[in-house]
Specification:
Helix content is 40%, strand content 13%. Helix 5 packs across helix 6. The longest helix is centred in the last third of the chain and has 18 residues, at 132-149. The protein is built from six helices and five strands; from the N terminus they run αααββββαααβ. The radius of gyration is 15 Å and the shape is globular.
């Protein structure tokens, strides 16, 4: 596989697998994740169903569609060298998230904690003339990759 093919595959968000999210974490990051899991569970007290953060990768579409993606407070988001970069709080350096000319930018700009993943998908569908299945798969994959990168979380619990 060429370097170009590997780069393209890295941003192939619509093919993110349905599986539990695997966080490769340091001990410090593990404590932060545990605090986040408490937040994800918080929806249960309000009559919702509780899910662990790692479970978001295997949730059915009809449940994940209602999730409100948001950028983690304190993340530094920058643009440079044709890419969007993100630096989670406490991380020493920024990570390359996606190309600036990618449909991911449209979706990412809607990850505001107020727009459900289903609505993000609808807007992608309209903007790029994609069918809803492709749009949802792309928005879902981007969101889950950004969770693994430490850039995004569900707003107010899943």
């Amino acid at each position: 596989m060429s370097d170009h093919d590997q780069q393209e595959e890295r941003y192939d968000f619509e093919n993110f697998p349905y599986q539990r999210l695997n966080f490769g974490l340091t001990r410090r990051q593990l404590w932060a994740l545990l605090a986040t899991n408490v937040q994800v569970y918080s929806g249960k007290a309000e009559g919702g169903t509780a899910y662990k953060l790692a479970d978001l990768g295997c949730l059915p579409e009809e449940i994940l569609a209602a999730v409100l993606p948001q950028v983690v407070p304190g993340c530094a988001i920058t643009v440079g060298d044709g890419f969007v970069w993100g630096q989670p709080p406490g991380k020493p350096q920024a990570a390359k998230l996606f190309p600036l000319d990618s449909p991911a930018l449209t979706a990412f700009n809607l990850f505001n904690g107020q727009t459900a993943l289903l609505e993000v998908s609808r807007q992608l569908s309209e903007a790029y003339a994609w069918d809803m299945a492709h749009s949802f798969a792309y928005a879902r994959g981007l969101f889950l990759v950004l969770i693994l990168t430490g850039i995004c979380l569900p707003a107010g619990g899943a």
